Amino acid sequence: MKIGIIxxxxxxxxxxxxxxxxxxxxxxxxxxLAKKHEVTVITSREAGTEKNDNICGINVIRCGxxxxxxxxxxxxxxxxxxxDAYKVGKKENFDILVGYNFVTYPVAWKIADKLKKPCVxxxxxxxxxxxxxxxxxxxxxxxxxxxxxxxxxxxxxxSVSEYTKNxxxxxxxxxxxxxxxxxxxxxPLEVHKFQKPTLCCVSRLVDYxxxxxxxxxxxxxxxxxxxxxxxxxxxxxxxDYLKNLSEELDIKENVxxxxxxxxxxxxxxxxxxxHIFCFPSIVEGFxxxxxxxxxxxxxxxxxxxxxxxxxxxxxxxxxxxxxxxxEMAEKIKYVLNDxxxxxxxxxxxxxxxxxxxxxxxxxxxxxxxxxxxK
Length: 374
Description:
Helix 10 crosses helix 13 (about 340-355). Strands 3-4-2-1-5-6-7-8 form an eight-stranded mixed β-sheet. By secondary structure, it is of the alpha/beta class. The chain has helices at about 20-35, 75-90, 105-115, 130-135, 140-150, 160-170, 210-225, 240-250, 265-275, 290-295, 305-310, 325-335, 340-355, 360-374, and strands at about 1-5, 40-45, 50-55, 60-65, 95-100, 120-125, 155-160, 175-180, 200, 230-235, 255-260, 275-280, 300-305, 315-320.
């Protein structure tokens, strides 16, 4: 098969230097599919990258003007990229087109329509009615784009979870929605646990990830666990606010903001060296980082929202009421103080994570694509 993948961002190396779940999903699936098929990725051009590249057997075409990673806003640069991606894609000889986020969904559909080929959307979450709440006025662009895309005659939507599928049913034919989870592969890494009790969180620093709740939980924990440490991996518009909050809560010495870490294995080393993985987010489509923590043999504490519960199967960790940082602190302390519980959570978490191995998920996707092309 000649598979065309349209994704707003894509790694520049096989180190999986990604900043978001959609591009991680695109990279993982492209890597496995490229072992048997001709996979071409059309993506943004970032500073220092070549127009044409090959990563892990994947043909990568970076188009348009150089642009930085953004999660919201930048409407003009996004529209420019969408136009450039369409111009490039319509000249290719694809058998099937796949879009990976709301910016590339309409591009994939337009290219597929031009080439008279099947179009698939890889869907992570549905934000209709929530765009402006989560992103402010710039969210109008997302709201309009998503509504437009779901009104198109698409061949199939691959939802990452039953939770997302149930949301999609309100706007799209449920018979054309199939659930395929994200690929989550974790390389075996030899690390030592941090000497002091350490929490970690891997997250974009935006409002709905609720990293401020984690800081407030750390402040509570510090009273009974003075040497508690918390490592936060990721960047975003809330970074300065969160750093200031750590000072206000008198936990500056307990919290380390690690920023963006290029090599994903280096991120996983921090996760695996920690005692507990914490994820207070209230908006997710799947929860890759939860599964990565389970696969790394690290118990998690996460907000009790459907996609995270579904991804984990309630194995490998404990949940707390969303936004309830006091309960989060209680659950963290409970796990830290119970070695037998830690062992149980680790064993069941590692077992559950096996379901998301690349070979298993990619084979399911491959069968679906072949059936659509026939």
